[in-house]
Amino acid sequence: MLYPRIIPVLLVKDKGLVKTVKFKDPKYVGDPLNAVRIFNEKEADELSVIDIDATAQGREPDYQMIENLASECRMPLCYGGGIKTVEQAKRILSLGVEKIALSSAVLERPELISEIAEQVGRQSVVVVLDVAKKFFSTKYECYTHNGKKNSKLCPLEFAQLAGRLGAGELVINSIDNDGCMKGYDLALIREIKSLVAIPVTALGGAGSYEDIKSLIMQESIIGAAAGSLFVFKGKYKAVLISYPTKIEKSNIIAAAQQ
Amino acid sequence: MIAIIDYGLGNIKAFANVYKRLNIPHTFATTREQLEGASKIILPGVGAFDHAMSMLNNSGLRDTLDSLVLEQKIPVLGICVGMQMMANSSEEGEMSGLGWIPGTVKKFSHSDPVVKEKCPLPHMGWNNIVIEKEDSLFNDLDEEQRFYFLHSYFFECDEKENCLATADYGFQYSCVVRRDNVYGIQCHPEKSHHNGVAFLKNFATN
Known about the structure:
The structure holds two protein chains of two kinds.
Chain A: E1 5-13, E2 16-21, E3 24-30, H1 32-41, E4 47-51, H2 63-72, E5 77-80, H3 86-94, E6 99-102, H4 104-108, H5 111-120, E7 125-133, E8 140-144, E9 149-150, H6 155-165, E10 169-174, H7 186-195, E11 200-203, H8 209-219, E12 223-226, H9 228-231, E13 232-233, E14 238-239, H10 246-257
Parallel strand pairs in A: 1-4, 1-12, 4-5, 5-6, 6-7, 7-10, 10-11, 11-12
Antiparallel strand pairs in A: 1-2, 2-3, 7-8, 8-9, 13-14
Chain B: E1 2-5, H1 12-21, E2 26-29, H2 32-36, E3 40-43, H3 49-57, H4 62-71, E4 76-79, H5 81-84, E5 89-90, E6 103-107, H6 113-118, E7 123-131, E8 146-151, E9 153-157, E10 163-168, E11 172-179, E12 182-185, H7 193-205
Parallel strand pairs in B: 1-2, 1-3, 3-4, 4-12, 5-6
Antiparallel strand pairs in B: 6-9, 7-8, 7-10, 10-11, 11-12
């Protein structure tokens, strides 16, 4: 049987690892390469690394950093941040990365999804939607540039479009829940997953293994991604990298399958 | 010396990293000369079938590779699309495969809506393999034989005896195949932690 995936997401800023709350107040939590080594030892299912400076500063992906991380990484690696062209996507995959994550560039020009998928295969193309609701609104919208620009696009509609254009995975990242550690936006995940036929990964809000369990109970086969949960420990948020042990992981999955 | 074929596709560095940690001599082969002395060959691959086939056909390595594998019987391991290329053909493309293991590469297509909902494509993540035929490739695997998968097409063997292991994604399909000195694996041993390392070590040393 296929197992749900439990995925640490690492945010990179100024070459250091950071963690945000609602996409703001990045707190330095360590060195990316060191984090990759720790997740190797812990045998994480997959790893995502997102460079949150690249698009915001309008610069190229940091290929040297990507190559260093990829050669250290013994689990499947997804890289995102600043990818705008087919050439950049191909170059990054050639450095030893399994998947590339696209967001602002494809919200601006969705056909880029097809263009990249045709060249590298859809299995390597991930579309990340950073979503939030405005105050007093019930309507979700997709944001870019670390939550600063509202694209006004509806995530439900864009998720379907991305699937049709050749995305191989969707990551739904809740800005409202980011860093809050109070659980995933389960209703939104349910709605989007029911609309698409490609793998979906939820990000934003996981604060405990119980939160991951709730997500897996609801969706069964799903990617459960988290940042804070795997880099902070305790109520004072001391920095400590962690990941469920094999036994903890089977407990999460077994409970969710009952 | 294990030659990892470098024809511009696949995560060749990841294989090199595994063998480096195991202290197993290995090299990247981009030329005939680099390939000729190989005692074992790794054929990686990702992306679309026709793209991979044309990259290999245009690499200048094809004749040497055919002669090493078919005449000198040097063991070769195809990974992901590298395995799919060993079939006669693929539903994903028009080009002929290498034809080293009789079979066709087909697209997953689940007609039952319940199965379809449970099996989104690509098949992405960790799945168990079920060993159908004992082989030294499977020595020292964990009790849970989990590997990382990332694909939408699968290898259908013409001859059942060529199937060494299956995986379940809506139905059982061949995920490890072998015919004499030709081996293929659909999942990614280079990214499958302990099991993957054991598998690659077995291929290199047995």
